[in-house]
# Entry
Amino acid sequence: MFGSLRAVLVHAEGRAGRDDSTSIRTPPTRGVVLVTVAATVVTLVLGTVTGTAVLLLGLLVFLPAFAAALCTPRQTALVSTWVSVLVILPVAMSGERLADRVILALFALGFGALAVYGSWLRITREGELVRLRSTAAAMQRQILRPLPLITDDVLVDGVYEPVQQDKLVGGDIYDVAATAWGTRVLIGDVQGKGLSAIGMAIDVVGAFREAAHREPTVTALVDSLEAAVVRHNGYAEQRGEPERFVTTVVLGVDTGTEAQLVTCGHIPPYLLNDGAVTAVGAGTEHAPLGLADLVDEPRTVSWFPFPAGATLLLCTDGLTEARSPAGTFYPLEAQLAGRVDITAGRLPYSLVDDVHAFTKGAQQDDLAVLAVRRSPHRISSTCASAAPPGG
# Structure
């Protein structure tokens, strides 16, 4: 019963341990020394063969420029000192005019000093970017919690990839809340890009986390999200920013055999069960959040069977609207039909790898893919409570 939970947690820790997005990469000093010596040997050999050793040594003056682009200031200073000595000594002992020797020596020293300064500027700038990226990563952990997410009712695993990796947080949102009325799952997509879209994402996720524990019904929860979007658009209008809408799916799962669903202009979820793939709630979509005033019909909840062992796939249009180089859309339903036997934990990663191959790595939009299945703990507890005495 707890083996599956432990495997999910270990899987999450493994992925977290591979996150090195907030580090400055520089080559090891041993590698820098080896490359510098190798370049020197090649230059000396060519100089000996061609009889132009002094002239070829002058080409080494440009070696610190490469070090400045890749190495630390200390490593760049090491390369610059080495090159300056190699250039100045032979030139000083050559028969060239004194003015030429002085100019070449000053050029070597000056170019080396500029290389060290350039390396320092690069490291300083990269350090600032690392700090900003660390702040963005911390913000992302507050807005979008790392997957997988586990409650007494469900296990939710998946993949989130913003189209701009340097920003970390895009317009796609998701969250899971364990409440007194069961577990509520949210996935959505904020219209547009940029900081204002991220601001809307923060407001919607915050409203979900608060209202999920306050509202006893899924429809009331969605109404609270609608109010949050309307408020945000009101503030945006005062600042002269464009109003935005948000497409969402809100899912409610408790101890019953059915689940609840409200779809607001979003891609319907897909249920994978007994070798079949079914679009859940197709045809019952409501207006996106922020546009409820444009329609007369109130939002209603759809019920659907969600048995133990079934997988519910939630995604954003970064998956369904991904295009191949030829312009064709990613065939999600067909790909799901060929993956009905894949475990829920592997399904999102398999789809994301497949869509990257389909688009040849050209990601056009933020991408979020979630796989929801009932918690083994809840299933075991429900079965035990339903078993007859002595059974």
Notes: DSSP finds twelve helices and eleven strands in the chain. Residues 1-22, 379-391 have pLDDT under 50 and may be disordered.
